[in-house]
Amino acid sequence: MELLVFYRESLTQFAGAGFSYLGRFEYQSHSGTSPALFTLARSGFMPSIEQIQAQEDEQGGFNPATVRDGREWVLSTIVRRRGQAAFRASLLAAYASTCPVTGCKVEPLLEAAHIIPYLGATTNHIQNGLPLRADIHTLFDLQLLAIDPETLAVLLAPALLGSEYGVLAGRPIDLPMDAMHHPSREALRTHRIRCSF
User: Fold this and answer.
1) Residue 163 sits in which domain range?
2) Is residue 23 located within the same domain as residue 109?
3) DSSP designation for 9
4) Is the pLDDT higher at 27 or at 68?
5) Is 155 within 8 Å of 145 (Cβ atoms)?
6) Is the separation of the CB atoms in 176 and 182 below 8 Å?
7) pLDDT tens per residue across span 147-161
């Protein structure tokens, strides 16, 4: 059974008593009654990093004939991770080419991170993006790092608290001068809900 999941914390959270759309999910199981606890899985097969790594490992050893192709693939991957050019440029301009989480100003390392994942041109909105340092972007996409939608402070998965990233926990992010360029709190809330910590 496939379900479309909509979310709100209170009747007045969204204009017109609306909801935030979280996406398509498949029913897995449930327990209890009044209220029941449902276990859902996001629709569409999304392989884990471990599964992707296993596929890469299965493709065999070193092949000198593919070295050039491999370099081009790495460069194209970097371009894709940086994000669509205009979207990235608007984020860099708004945030003065600075990662709002770490303060990193090394522009080649900054990527255009979508808060709500890319779903077409409408999600390339400046309020749905952050110019994140590459490693922070990865942690954000893996839902190991989030931004509190109320305090705009960095939240970390417990596994990261004892790591070198632990110093970021609780740190407020740096915001653009123009309030119209601040990240959407609703988008941050949607991302936070998806995190398992």
Assistant:
1) 83-197
2) no
3) S
4) 27
5) yes
6) yes
7) 999 999 999 999 999
Residues 6+ positions from 103 with CB-CB distance below 8 Å: 174
Closest-CA residue to 78 (of 68, 66, 86, 70): 70
Which run of H or of E encompasses 54? Answer: helix 49-58
Closest listed residue to residue 168, CA positions, set 129, 195, 130, 140: 140
Sequence-ordered list of residues with C-beta below 8 angstroms from that of 4, at least 6 positions apart, any chain: 21, 23, 24, 25
Range list of β-strands (E), 110-171:
110-114, 129-133, 145-147, 154-156
Is the bond into 35 cis (omega within 30 degrees of 0)?
yes
Structural domain count of the chain:
2
Token code pair at residue 13: 């959270």
Q: Among 149, 131, 153, which Cα is nearest to 191's?
A: 149
pTM: 0.67
For residue 83, the one-letter residue type is G
Rounded Cα–Cα distance for residues 165 and 132 (Å): 14
- pLDDT tens sequence across 36-95: 888 877 766 556 666 666 666 676 666 666 555 666 666 666 665 555 788 999 999 999
Report pLDDT for 79: 60
Residue 25 placed within a domain: yes
Q: Is 108 found in the same domain as 160?
A: yes
| Judgement on whether residues 174 and 92 belong to the same structural domain of the protein | yes
**At residue 61, what are phi and psi to the nearest 5 degrees?**
-85, -160
